[in-house]
Specification:
Distance between the termini of chain B: 86 Å
CATH architecture of the largest domain in chain A: 3-Layer(aba) Sandwich
Structural class of chain B: mainly alpha
CATH superfamily of the largest domain in chain A: Dimethylsulfoxide Reductase, domain 2
CATH topology of the largest domain in chain A: Dimethylsulfoxide Reductase, domain 2
Largest sheet of chain A: 7 strands, mixed
Strand order of the largest sheet of chain B: 1-2
Distance between the termini of chain A: 89 Å
Radius of gyration of chain A: 29 Å
Number of helices of chain A: 27
Number of strands of chain B: 2
Largest sheet of chain B: 2 strands, antiparallel
Oligomer: heterodimer
Number of helices of chain B: 10
Number of domains of chain A: 4
Chain lengths: ~725, ~220
């Protein structure tokens, strides 16, 4: 017997037949197909009970109510909160993508100290001790007034605690970022002698005359405005947009009035002049109960008659007259100002000229009109303990007068070599190195400050320049009191609450400041008698706290205020136009303006990766930002669509791509805002485009003292 | 030269060739027999391995973290839905969480060793028991208990068998390749089922749907 080829053949065939007759092949085929459809390394989220937690979104001043969907306690989705007075179930794309901020790779995971340009992780105790030591030594040296703090807004108990820390230490250097709300507040104090907040009853108005506002591009309370805009046809309400480019708002409007940039206030006064000349105004309110009406009437009828301003504005006389007639004859006409998203202070004179229309129409504190509401004084702070060092320091004037951070950084920039107006800067909920005009100079100013502490949850444009980072929770990880709703008449006081995490070694910003004050010791410690922020808020909010803790929010009456403060036109009598943009007309023949886009944030926090992905490639293509210009401007300057160009302004220059758009006025170039962030480890947002604030310089408004810049003179050339 | 010599000694070349060929034929017959033998041997080995060895190689056996007496709990609590309940929103809670067990087991109730382990390891430490779920379907399948139990009025036994009367938890068998529980394919390696709860593959869903509703259903009903 010999084993040969046939034996092997038999062996092979036998094995094949044996396997085929067993279930092995069929079972393995099935298993392999399953394996390829459910790769074992693909993560599978944990299943569990679905719950919803309600909180308030603080990504923008709109403060919408949001509902966070959770599975087995893990936040997985954000939806609008039904029945919430501000947004009733609606939500914007930034709100729904807020979970990306929670898991953002640029989150700062623990306190860090910068040593020789490298970050070193430290414990909270070490970090707080470092900051406290600095405050103590400055107080001991009698330089308590050189401690400064820049916060996003002055509202709420957290901002209150930071302000209190500064006062207790002995400094007046507390600043909040400029916004149109600041200007409106100053304006109503000036024109109505009223201390309160402005609100626009847009959803009941039947004629909305918007002077360059991005009404549906993030102005005021974005979601509330989307809803008001959607119901416009049903309500038979008209929207007229005055703007030099066909923005989304202008495209959605019933009428688009392309007035030349910077001439909006003149147009408003011209409409006033027609209303006065043709007796189309509320005599009882404006004339009889108003002050200085005659002088104002004289000014506008003599200097701002339509025939006289048609050249400046580019709008012909019949159109101005028809605007005046339309506005005056409407039941509830409302004029609004605050360019783009309204997160710049704007020019007080421009706001005054626009508001004069509301006053002439007499639509003040009426349904569908302009409302002035008293700020609810809900907070009761215990008395402050100030020792000698604090009292002496507090007696010294602030480095930047008027509470505008622009003035602070201006003081730093213009300070001599041996002067240090600010020795220590704390930054909370703000990103001045990105959001302030002439961001490059702001950066240099911050670099001059010997000790900068950032309380940011993210490694943003400002935190990267800090010497110490004490990272705080992001908004989904914390609770705080939220007051009002930007520019809306729906004044809601709400309490947000933690719905996730905390994921990292971060602290509540309120707790962080209380811990810092306790570490400083002495009278500063004594001014912070609370164990934690939770204790502080429950005591400071007094009776309101009980309602907030139970119901989550308090909605104020939806009826207009019963009183009607009179109007004083004195401010407008001295009208000499809003400040002109920076730059020499001959050297810089064009005007560069910022254009706000709903899909990009423009505040302290950069847009989420999701939001950046939704931006069209007429705004951002790969990492290149596009500027918008009329074909005629392109022809004159020799730049070509889709090609690189260089934009230069008196404060900076940038490489951009060119987007040709017929809807923008010749001579104007528009650059989207909210790009060019330092993204830290978040490569989905970092390095995308250029920050427009690097190119636009601040213009201090002579009336308000705030930054009134909306554009700058510029030139563009082929790259 | 040599060849010529051989030719003269042994006769013609053809004669020699003939002799070789007859020898080969005899060898061929025995080769075929051996081939058949090898065939049968290999067939038997592979056939038996496929049926007997393969299943034990394909599945790994895992013990549950602790034993659970379903029969005892059903007696004490009533039906399955006392512990495997529907939440208020209609979703199915599945395996109870430690927290829901603690509604009764805040302290030890019986004297079994398993309960002692449960109390010490999970209740006191506030941890979830990492139960191995026999009927766990993969993530790519959407299955609604509410549609079957509440809307169609099916009972638990139809799919899960008589687990409610079991006193011990049998070892969990996991497919080494797919990670699935063996209960999905079924105990029978050929996939033959006697009872409806013996298998829970897509075809089994489709069979029942066709029988009960007249349609196998569409892909997206389960694969969302």
């Amino acid at each position: 017997m010999k084993i040969d080829r046939r034996s092997f053949l038999g062996l092979g065939l036998g094995a094949a037949a044996g396997v085929a007759a067993s279930p092995m092949t069929w079972k393995l085929t099935d298993d392999i197909s399953i394996w390829t459809q459910n790769w074992p390394w693909t993560p599978v989220p944990r299943d569990g009970e679905v719950t919803f937690d309600n909180t308030v979104c603080t990504l923008c001043p709109g403060n919408c109510g949001i509902s966070v969907r959770k599975i087995a306690g893990r936040a997985v989705k954000i939806e609008g909160r039904g029945g919430y007075p501000v947004n009733d179930g609606g939500v914007c794309l930034h709100g729904i993508s807020a979970l990306q901020y929670l898991y953002d790779p640029s989150r700062i995971k623990s306190p860090m100290v910068k040593k020789r340009d490298a970050w070193k992780t430290v414990s909270w105790d070490e970090g707080l001790a470092l900051a406290a030591e600095k405050i103590k030594s400055l107080r001991d040296l009698g330089r308590a007034n050189t401690i400064a703090c820049v916060a996003g807004s002055g509202e709420g108990t957290i901002a209150g605690l930071y302000r209190r820390l500064l006062m207790a230490a002995g400094s007046q250097n507390f600043y909040t970022m400029d916004s149109m709300d600041k200007t409106w507040k100053m304006l109503i104090a000036e024109m109505h002698g009223f201390d309160g907040t402005a609100g626009f009853d847009i959803e009941s108005s039947d004629y909305l005359l918007s002077f360059g506002t991005g009404f549906i591009e993030g102005w005021g309370s974005p979601v509330g405005n989307f809803m008001a805009n959607s119901s416009r046809k049903d309500r038979n309400a008209k929207l007229v947009q005055v703007e030099y480019r066909l923005s989304s708002t202008a495209a959605a409007a019933d009428q688009w009035i392309p007035a030349k940039p910077g001439s909006e206030a003149d147009l408003a006064l011209s409409i006033c002049s027609v209303m006065i000349t043709e007796n189309l105004y509320d005599k009882d309110y404006a004339e009889k109960s108003g002050k200085n009406f005659d002088d104002f009437a004289k000014l506008v009828t003599e200097k701002y008659a339509p025939e006289l301003i048609t050249r400046t504005t580019g709008i012909d006389v019949p159109k101005i007259k028809s605007l005046a007639a339309g506005f005056a004859r409407a039941k509830a006409p409302l004029a609004i100002a605050g360019r783009g998203r309204g997160d710049a202070a704007g020019s007080m004179m421009e706001f005054a000229a626009v508001h004069a229309l509301n006053c002439l129409a007499g639509n003040i504190n009426k349904k569908g009109g302009f409302w002035m509401t008293k700020d609810a004084d809900t907070m009761i702070w215990p008395s402050l303990v100030m020792d000698d060092a604090a009292a002496k320091g507090y007696a010294k004037a602030a480095a930047g007068p008027g509470g505008s951070p622009d003035r602070l950084f201006d003081a730093l920039t213009s300070a001599g070599e041996d002067e240090t107006p600010v020795e220590m800067l704390m930054v909370y909920n703000a990103n001045p190195c990105h959001t302030l005009h002439d961001a490059g100079t702001v950066r240099s100013a911050i670099e001059k400050i010997p000790f900068v502490v950032s309380f940011s949850p993210y490694m943003d444009d400002t935190a990267r320049l800090a010497d110490l980072v004490l990272p705080t929770h992001m908004f989904l990880e914390m609770g705080e009191d939220i007051h009002g709703c930007a520019s809306s008449v729906k004044k809601v006081t709400a309490l947000s609450k933690p719905v996730a995490g905390p994921l990292f070694d971060t602290r509540h910003p309120g707790d962080a400041v209380i811990m810092l004050a306790k570490a400083v010791d002495g009278s500063v410690r004594a001014s912070f008698p609370w164990e934690s922020y939770e204790v502080a808020i429950s005591e400071v909010m007094g009776d309101t706290w009980d309602i907030l803790a139970k119901d989550g929010y308090i909605k104020c009456a939806s009826q207009p205020p019963a009183f009607r403060p009179g109007v004083d036109f004195k401010l407008l009598v001295g009208y000499d136009g809003p400040p002109a943009p920076l730059g020499d007309k001959k050297k810089f023949p064009l005007i560069l303006v910022e254009m706000d886009h709903m899909r990009l944030t423009s505040g302290a926090v950069a847009s989420s990766p999701f939001a950046v992905k939704t931006v069209p490639d007429t705004i951002l293509k790969d990492n290149d930002i596009l500027v918008e210009m009329n074909p005629e401007t392109a022809r004159q300057t020799g730049v070509s669509p889709g090609r690189m160009a260089v934009v230069e302004t008196p404060v900076g220059s940038a490489r951009v791509k060119v987007n040709i758009f017929d809807g923008i006025m010749p001579g104007v170039i528009a650059m989207p805002g909210g790009l060019g962030h330092f993204g830290g480890d978040n490569r989905y947002i970092g390095g995308k485009g250029v920050n427009v604030n690097e190119l636009i310089g601040p213009v201090i408004d002579p009336v308000s003292g705030l930054d009134a810049a909306w554009g700058i003179r510029a030139r563009i050339s082929r790259a | 030269m040599n060849e010529l010599k051989r030719k003269t000694e042994n006769g013609s070349v053809e004669a020699e060739a003939e002799a070789v060929s007859s020898e080969q034929k005899a060898g061929e017959d025995s080769g075929l027999g051996l081939g058949v033998l090898f065939f049968i041997g290999a067939f038997a080995v592979c056939f038996l391995s496929g049926w007997l060895l393969f299943p034990s190689l394909l599945y790994s056996k895992k013990e549950q973290p602790l034993n659970f007496n379903h029969a005892l709990h059903v007696d004490e609590m009533g039906g399955c839905d006392s512990c495997h309940y529907f939440r208020d929103d209609g979703s199915f809670a599945g395996i109870p969480t430690t927290e829901s067990c603690m509604e009764c087991h805040e302290s030890q109730l019986g004297d079994t060793e398993d309960e002692a382990i449960f109390m010490k390891e999970y209740v006191e430490k506030g941890k979830e028991v990492p139960w191995l779920i026999y009927s766990e379907q993969p993530d790519c399948v959407f299955f609604s208990h509410a549609a079957h139990v509440i809307a169609a009025g099916m009972d638990c036994v139809s799919c899960h068998g008589h687990i409610g009367t079991s006193e011990k938890l049998r070892p969990y068998e996991e497919n080494r390749l797919t990670g699935y529980s063996r209960d999905i394919w079924g105990k029978n390696i050929w996939g033959i089922k006697k009872n409806p709860w013996d298998r829970m593959k897509m075809d089994d869903c489709a069979d029942c749907h066709e029988r009960e509703t007249g349609s196998k259903g569409a892909c997206f009903q389960c694969h969302k």
